[in-house]
Amino acid sequence: MRRMRHTIAIAGLATALALVPAAGWAASPDPDVDAPGPTSAPKVANGVLDAMQRDLGMSRSAAQDRLAFQAAAAETEQTLQARIGADWAGAWLDPKANVLHVAVTDAADGPAVRAAGARPVVAAHTLAELDGWRAGLDAALTPVAATVPSWYVDVTTNSVVVNATAGAVEQARSLVAAAGVPADAVRVVETTEAPRTFIDVIGGNAYYIGGGRCSVGFAVTGGFVTAGHCGRTGAATTSPSGTFAGSSFPGNDYAWVRVASGNTPVGAVNNYSGGTVAVAGSTQAAVGATVCRSGSTTGWRCGTIQAFNATVNYAEGSVSGLIRTNVCAEPGDSGGSLVAGNQAQGMTSGGSGNCSSGGTTYFQPVNEALSAYGLTLVTSGGTTPPPPTGCSGYARTYTGSLSTGRSAIQPSGSYVTVSSSGTIRLCLDGPTGSDFDLYLQKWNGSSWASVASATSSSADETISYTGTAGQYRYGVYAYAGSGSYTLGATTP
């Protein structure tokens, strides 16, 4: 069942292609008015909501509301950051209250923030300043990597957080001061973190590099991105077969694998609930946003973003620019996908803890990897597959082609007249890997009204509706994915 029920947008506009209805109707039905489409928040595959309920203790409706809110908040954040410019000090979500906080260094920016529906917070330091100080620590703290496992910018406290092990806190403070970071812009915190890369575990849905195992991150044209520590450039992979075409670790933790012919990259992520989650893009979510991770060891796990641009010291070396989260992960999950709703965020790098007691996990931002290698993310549209051949056995068959977000009315933008009561049976066979929806609408004398719909996360849908005589039409909506479809219909 679909996570979010979508309503139908119907506009009562006459068009030049309107057909003359059967005699006796008080008003003419307009077959070419706006076709079906969603007016609520984007739907999300069931595996995501299930994992949020399990890991975050949320009800299903609360999980739906949170994802809808943070999708809108991501757009608001981008708009405000461009408008505020040099005064920008970061943004974060309060997931319980569904509030977007925006930090600025000039109180005069407050009205613009409030007008956008966010809550302004006046901060002492800009995000650019904090990022600069954090970057300076990459060199200052590398010599003590064994006792200072990570550091990052915490926008919620407008400071750089440095994590030091017991007994090393004062040493870390001295090094931070020597690096020129202002005292009011840094917090040195004692930690038990012991980050490690996730690679050396057996079992699960994965790809393999020699005797090791990692997880696919996101499909790109010609292959997929993953963690750099999973393999060096030139290393061969199996299941799918391919070769590391580029790899960067330490410093960064990204790589991309060029797959061999016969392997087809698909814009989707395994939800470990028997299905996939469509990837629609790679818009960065905000601090505080709910995210879920897919990996071949522990499946789907959810949590929140705590910070961006974190630096982590692994035994192999330091990695900067990572996303810090409280999502759990374990060895073998390395390289796996981090998503916010249907937006790609990053690939699993490493962290502390496990999925029994919880932990901290860091992710390599996906957009950095795409930019480094000039790659194109494969979204839910993918490549257009050949026309489907399903939905046989119906009285009439209609075909068409749609791209993501577009809709169509069958038959041929018009409608059919059903002369007697009975059951209307519809079948939609959409492109493989897509998410197409099916609607049955009836003319009520003044407008088209939906009387039945099938809106699962699948490419294929069916409707069986028992109704009275009248004018009916069939709506097809491409929620995610593009390509050709077949629609079968049998009426009384």
From TrEMBL:
One of its GO terms (molecular function) is serine-type endopeptidase activity. GO terms for biological process: proteolysis. Residues 125-183 form the Peptidase S1A alpha-lytic prodomain domain. One of its GO terms (cellular component) is extracellular region. Pfam families: PPC (PF04151), Pro_Al_protease (PF02983). InterPro entries: Pept_S1_alpha_lytic (IPR004236), Pept_S1A_streptogrisin (IPR001316), Peptidase_C_arc/bac (IPR007280), Peptidase_S1_PA (IPR009003), Peptidase_S1_PA_chymotrypsin (IPR043504), Streptogrisin_prodomain (IPR035070). It comes from the Bacteria. Coiled coil: none annotated. Keywords: Disulfide bond, Hydrolase, Protease, Serine protease, Signal, Zymogen. Residues 415-477 form the Peptidase C-terminal archaeal/bacterial domain. Residues 1-26 form the signal peptide. Belongs to the peptidase S1 family. This is Peptidase S1 and S6 chymotrypsin/Hap. It comes from Cellulomonas fimi (strain ATCC 484 / DSM 20113 / JCM 1341 / CCUG 24087 / LMG 16345 / NBRC 15513 / NCIMB 8980 / NCTC 7547 / NRS-133).
